[in-house]
Specification:
alpha+beta, 3 domains, 299 residues, four-stranded mixed sheet, Immunoglobulin-like, 13 strands
Length: 299
């Protein structure tokens, strides 16, 4: 910008002012005006518009103060990648053989979780026209429309009833079993049984209804089950009976497993449970039978 004390075109007293001087002075005036306008616009941008884009303060608080206030209001004090609530489910088999009546169960929740224990009961009851035995089956894959009534796969209370078990589709998502519409029923079930027994789970006796055998023999796919309306009516039959975890090992405890079995759970540390079966129930005339247990952990 031109200094205000310096003439646009300097002349001494008595000098002749020509038309060239007059035109030159007009040009210099215009340049000076343009320069002043441009400088003013830039100043407005820097101190106003651009500064407002990333203001130092809003309502008397800077960015750090607003972040701290909002964190105190909405965020937990201790950050947890899994959120406020975490959940685990494990299925384990215990026997009275040395070394198989207790185990360490790692959960890695980083805290003492709430623990519930369940005995997995046989799913299928006595059926008069049953063509194959499902005795002792703890996990039973079935098609609701065809199998629920035939095998008594209902939880009934007075006049109300609901299917026994878990819907197959959501369970696949929970176990992260991948498949496409072209996946065969046989391949999908093989992947499913592998997933549900994934470490640290144990393999629990499982079976399926004759409907499943027929679907496998006919090489049916997921697409076929969806198009025929069968996909949303598939279940994993499971009958977990909640247990009271015994407080005393080695004696008759309240609620244990029937009248004799006792389960005790000890929090070894923030990441591991110690589970012990002190006594096993025995069938009449036979020795102690294995126990298939399910544990639900919630933090």
């Amino acid at each position: 910008m031109t200094d205000d004390t310096i003439p646009y075109i300097a002349r001494n007293p008595g000098d002749l002012i020509t038309a060239q001087d007059w035109d030159g002075m007009q040009v210099e005036i215009k340049k000076d005006m343009a320069s002043r306008i441009s400088a003013s616009e830039e100043k407005i941008k820097q101190s106003g518009v651009s500064h407002a884009t990333d203001a130092d303060e809003f309502a008397g608080k800077n960015a750090g103060q607003w972040t701290a206030d909002l964190d105190d209001r909405y965020a937990p004090k201790i950050h947890d990648h899994e959120g406020l609530t975490s959940y685990r489910r494990y299925m384990k088999r215990f026997t009275n053989d040395p070394g198989f009546d207790r185990l360490l169960l790692p959960h890695k929740l980083g805290r003492y979780p709430l623990v519930d224990a369940y005995e997995l009961m046989p799913v299928v009851g006595t059926v008069s026209d049953q063509t194959q035995s499902f005795a002792g089956c703890k996990l039973f894959f079935y098609y609701g429309n065809e199998d629920a009534d035939r095998y008594g796969l209902w939880a009934v209370a007075y006049r109300d009833r609901v299917p026994l078990g878990l819907r197959f589709g959501p369970l696949l998502a929970e176990l992260k079993v991948s498949y496409t519409d072209h996946t065969s029923v046989e391949d999908l079930l093989n992947d499913f049984w592998d997933a549900i027994a994934r470490d640290p789970n144990d393999r629990i006796p499982h079976c399926h209804s004759p409907w499943t055998d027929e679907s496998c023999e006919r090489h049916r796919t997921v697409a076929h089950l969806k198009s025929s309306g069968q996909w949303d009516d598939l279940y994993l039959g499971i009958r977990p009976r909640k247990l009271a975890i015994g407080s005393v090992v080695g004696g008759a405890g309240p609620g244990g497993l029937g009248s004799t079995g006792i389960v005790q759970v000890t929090h070894a540390n923030y990441d591991t449970l110690l589970v012990e079966v002190a006594e096993f129930p025995a069938d009449e005339g036979q020795g102690p039978r294995p126990l298939d247990l399910m544990f639900l952990l919630r933090s």
